[in-house]
Write a structure and sequence with these properties.
Blueprint lengths: L2 E7 L1 E2 L10 E6 L2 E5 L5 H7 L7 E5 L5 H4 L1 H11 L6 E6 L3 H7 L11 E6 L2 E5 L3 E7 L7 E7 L2 E4 L1 H6 L6 H8 L1 E4 L2 E4 L4 E4 L3 E5 L6 H6 L5 E5 L7 H6 L5 H11 L4 E4 L1 E2 L6 H8 L5 E3 L5 E3 L1
Parallel strand pairs: 2-18, 4-5, 5-6, 6-7, 15-16, 16-17, 17-19
Antiparallel strand pairs: 1-3, 1-20, 3-4, 8-9, 9-10, 10-15, 11-14, 12-13
Helix pairs in contact: 9-10
The protein binds zinc ion (2 copies).
Length: 297
């Protein structure tokens, strides 16, 4: 199944004329999910062709304004559009009230139900062929990263199965039972199938580089990690509990991810070439995202 990831905004703390506030959309097998909802997220979604009425769940990393302010406008527009489906919003435990306050304008306008869930660590959301797990990051207030993981899939080795006389409905019987008898022969599911590993994507912002992120992102296809600063502002990164480009790249390297995409770039950088270079000196497959970038996994 194809995963499509759209980066809505790549700035941190404040927008610039080229970079909007944090937000990442994931579409997978008919589901649309949003990670963080910075100011202007609904406009970014319109701009980049995302149908936001289809969003079923929003995963908030933490309750700093740059990651949640967009919720107020988005939930209101959904009501104006007469949404009827429930909307689930996930936020680190203890911060449910802030989200509730932020979205409690225009109660009379509401056409749908919003369920706000406080999260810690563990699986928080399950779809048909995937789940989403939260884990703790290391920031100035409680902040959560999220791991999207597609279920592993078993695929028949067509030639082999055919040769052994497996056809039609026998495939589903074999899948259900784990073995089947063909003539006098007992054939196991393992002997005629291979396991195709599900894809995974990890969203980690705002945070210092963390061993927990390394563990959560182990062998992931994609890690989207914050990179507020460059190494020359390392002290600031430490102070404000953010990461430098090199630190984010070290996390990607330790976790052996396939690809690193950097977001949450401080507004002080008008050009990101040096940040990208810094990350690549540690982990080659790194890039600084641009607003509207689409990644297909
Ligand atoms: Zn932030
Ligand atoms: Zn923050």
């Amino acid at each position: 199944m194809g995963m499509r990831i759209t980066i809505l905004g790549t700035s941190g703390s404040a927008p610039t004329k080229d970079r909007m506030m944090p937000g990442v959309v994931l579409t997978y097998d008919g589901s649309t999910m949003l990670f963080d909802c910075g100011e202007g997220s609904q406009m970014q979604m319109m701009k980049y062709g995302i149908n936001f009425s289809k969003i079923s769940a929003i995963f908030i990393s933490h309750a700093h304004g740059d990651h949640i302010i967009g919720l107020a406008g988005l939930v209101r527009t959904m009501a104006m559009n007469r949404r009827s489906a429930d909307l689930d919003i996930f936020v680190p435990r203890g911060y449910e009230g802030i989200v509730k306050t932020l979205i409690s304008f225009d109660k009379a306008l509401m056409t749908y139900r919003i369920n706000i869930h406080g999260v810690g660590s563990g699986v928080v959301y399950e779809g048909k062929e995937f789940n989403i797990r939260a884990f703790h990051l290391n920031h100035t207030i409680p902040s959560c990263g999220y791991v999207f993981r597609e279920a592993d899939r078993r695929r028949f080795i067509v030639e082999k199965a055919k040769k052994l006389g497996i056809k039609g409905a026998m495939h589903s019987e074999l899948q259900g039972k784990g073995w089947i008898k063909v003539g006098r022969r007992r054939i196991t599911l393992q002997s005629v199938t291979t396991v195709q590993k599900g894809k995974s994507f990890v969203y980690a912002t705002d945070t210092r580089p963390s061993r927990r992120t390394v563990a959560a992102a182990r062998n992931a296809d994609l890690l989207i990690h914050e990179s507020s600063y460059s190494e020359s502002e390392k002290a600031l990164a430490r102070d404000r509990k953010h990461s430098t480009a090199a630190e984010a790249a070290a996390v990607a390297k330790a976790a052996k991810v396939r690809r690193l995409v950097l977001i949450h770039i401080s507004a002080r950088y008008s050009s990101v070439g040096s940040l990208e270079k810094e990350a690549r000196s540690v982990f080659m497959n790194s890039e600084v995202a641009r607003d509207g970038e689409v990644i297909v996994l």
